[in-house]
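Ticket #4471: structure export looks truncated?
Reporter: QA, pipeline team
Priority: medium

Steps to reproduce: submit the single chain below to the structure queue and open the exported record.
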Amino acid sequence: MTPGNTERSGYHHGGLRQAVLTTALEVIAADGPGALSLRDLARRAGVSHAAPAHHFGDRTGLLTAIAAEGFGLLADALAGGADLADRGRRYVRFAAGHPAHFQVMFAPALLRADDPELTAARERAGAELRAGVAAPPGRDARATGIAAWSLAHGFATLYLTHNVDEAVGGLPPEEYFDLLTGFLTGPPGPDA
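Actual output as written to the record:
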């Protein structure tokens, strides 16, 4: 390699792991997780075919790393949410902004469930989700949280799979999600 050639410079300065993750997320976004191949990722990232295996072990290790990163990003996105509705909006915004992460995070058959990094990130995201739950009097807080998560996750999934494109139209997905939560929280106000 000549001094001016930077084709593999990411490998030499320690950025290989992130380069492979970024390339994998691009492949997943375009073609789904089934299209991932470590050899193809190495070729796309411009590194040796053994380099991704060195960092992730195998395809499952790579997908587990993507899920762990995704749950960490989700926890960050949810942190500081004012209430359950705000956390729902943040959840939908996260899914729309990180569709490849979202796709992998909730596919347990693709992941190593006992991975410590994944477990910690998943627990942190779960804690942030639960932090916004304030159950109405007489209602179970856990069931309220699952109902809210179901709405946010279900809508995000429908949005990402283009099943609600016509309904959403040109609205940002989190704004349309506000309309949905309005059906559950009471009649529309005078501005509706």
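Status: closed, not a bug. The export was complete when the record was re-opened. Leaving a note from the reviewer for reference: DSSP finds eleven helices and no strands in the chain.
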